Amino acid sequence: MNVAILSYGMGNLTSAAMALEHVGATVEVTSDHDRVLAAHAVVLPGVGAFPKAMEAVRRLGLDELVRERVDAGVPVLGICLGMQLFFESSSELGGAEGIGLVTGTVEPLDAAGLKVPQIGWNEVEWRAGSALAAGLGERAAMYHVHSYAVQPADPDVIAGTATYGNEFISAIEHDNLFGVQFHPEKSSRDGLQLLKNFVSVAVPA
Length: 205
Hints:
Layout: E1 2-6, H1 13-22, E2 26-30, H2 33-37, E3 41-44, H3 50-59, H4 62-71, E4 76-79, H5 81-85, E5 87-90, E6 96-97, E7 102-108, E8 118-126, E9 139-146, E10 148-152, E11 158-164, E12 166-174, E13 177-180, H6 188-202
Parallel strand pairs: 1-2, 1-3, 3-4, 4-13, 5-7
Antiparallel strand pairs: 5-6, 7-10, 8-9, 8-11, 11-12, 12-13
C-alpha cells in the first residue's frame, strides 16, 4: 500500500509520513508525477497561506495531477491547507483560485470574538457513515491550527463539524476525495485511527 505525499514546499511532511507509516502504509514524499501516478493513494498537506500554496502547486503541475487522480478513482486526502486547496477559491491575502474539486470557497474563520488563529484541540462531531471516522464514535478531539474555514456549496460533502465561537466545517468526504481541517498526524490515537481508515479505503484490490 503506497501513499504519495505531495511535496511543494508547504507542509509538515515528516510527521505526516511517519504517522502514515505507523498505520501500515509505505510512504513516498514526492512531486514526481510518475511516482504519484504509481501510488495507491495521494495526500496533499499544507501549512501557510492559500495563494502562495496554489502558486507552488500550479508551478509543479500538481493541481492537474490531483484532478487526474481523483477522476481516476484514487483516494486523495487533503490535510489542513491541503483541504482548502480543493475548493474553488479563497479570500485570503486578496484572494486566489484553488484546484476546484469542491464547489465552494474558503473564508476567514468566524470565531465570534475568540482568538484567531485557532490553535489547539477541538472536538469534531462526525456525520453518520463517514469513512474517515470509522471507529471514532460520534465525536473525537483533533488538533486544529487555522484562521480560515471551508464553505462548501453542497452540504452533502460535510463529514464533520466543530465549534470555535461558531460552527465550522472540519472534514469533508465525496466519493474518493477526503479532507480534514485538523492535523491527524498531531492528533494522537484518534488521528492515527483516521489515517488508518484512509489507508484502508486505499488498499488495492
